[in-house]
Amino acid sequence: MVCFSDLNAVTRALDLLSKVLAPLCFGVILSAISLAAGAVFIAAWNVASVVLEYALLIRVYRLVPRLAFKDVSGESSAANFCASQTGVVTRRVCVLWVQKPRRAV
After folding, report:
1. pLDDT at 37
2. Distance from C-alpha of 13 to C-alpha of 32, rounded to nearest angstrom
3. 35 in a domain, yes or no?
4. What CA–CA distance (Å, rounded) separates 61 from 55?
5. Confidence at residue 102, expressed as pLDDT on a 0 to 100 scale
6. Cβ contacts of 41 within 8 Å, gap of 6 or more
7. What pLDDT sits at residue 54?
């Protein structure tokens, strides 16, 4: 079973590490080579990232056939999941989680 708190911690650490290392690596490329070479490197990196991202997205879409069908019942599956929760606290947290994207920050 996947422990989501551990997964969240690892994901957060990778995110913070990339936010620190990316500007450092780009600065090294710019200072060591040239501005034009740095621009070409970043463009190639972005193209490769887009290709990889879309390939993974297509793979997930093919592995989960349910994604091909739209929920036309008017209620999302998250709302249905929240309605199935039995505990008062669990249901309240679930409802807040479902409504979170709708609230302004």
Report:
1. 84
2. 28
3. no
4. 10
5. 56
6. 29, 33
7. 94
How confident is the model at residue 101, as a pLDDT? Answer: 58
Contact 95, 82 (CB under 8 A): yes
H helix intervals, the chain:
4-32, 35-63, 77-84, 88-99
Asked whether residue 104 is domain-assigned, the answer is yes
- Size of the chain, expressed as the number of residues it contains: 105
Are residues 82 and 94 in contact, defined by beta-carbon separation less than 8 angstroms? yes
Range of the domain at 104: 71-105
Please report whether residue 29 resides in a domain: no
Rounded to two decimals, the pTM is: 0.50
Split into its structural domains, the chain has a count of 1
CA distance 31 to 15: 25
Q: Which residues of the chain have pLDDT under 50?
A: none
Model pLDDT, residue 21: 93
Distance, CA of 12 to CA of 10 (rounded, Å): 5
The residue assigned the tokens 């970043």 is 42
Q: Is residue 86 part of a domain?
A: yes
